[in-house]
Specification:
Length: 86
């Protein structure tokens, strides 16, 4: 069996797995808000364009947080195997 993929640090592996669920939730919240913003922009009736753009900007925050958590979890799981990053 290939030993390079074996988990050597169980705590780091657990921390990496624990970050995935909140990351997915943040990304889903951001996507739902973004869809609502796009719908308001497509309606395009005066004030709804401005509100749609504002909602799109606000939707970016949870998406960035979610991708940050996903990348942090991936790095923790990678480090748990004591593999080189570069």
């Amino acid at each position: 069996m290939d030993d390079s993929n074996a988990v050597r640090d169980r705590e780091l592996e657990r921390q990496g797995k624990r970050m995935i669920a909140p990351a997915v939730r943040f990304i889903v919240i951001g996507v739902v808000l973004a869809v609502a913003g796009v719908v308001l922009i497509l309606i395009g009736d005066g004030w709804s364009i401005g509100v749609g753009i504002a909602i799109l900007l606000l939707a970016g925050c949870p998406v960035v947080i979610g991708f940050g958590l996903l990348s942090g979890g991936a790095i923790a799981r990678w480090a748990a195997r004591h593999r080189l990053f570069a």
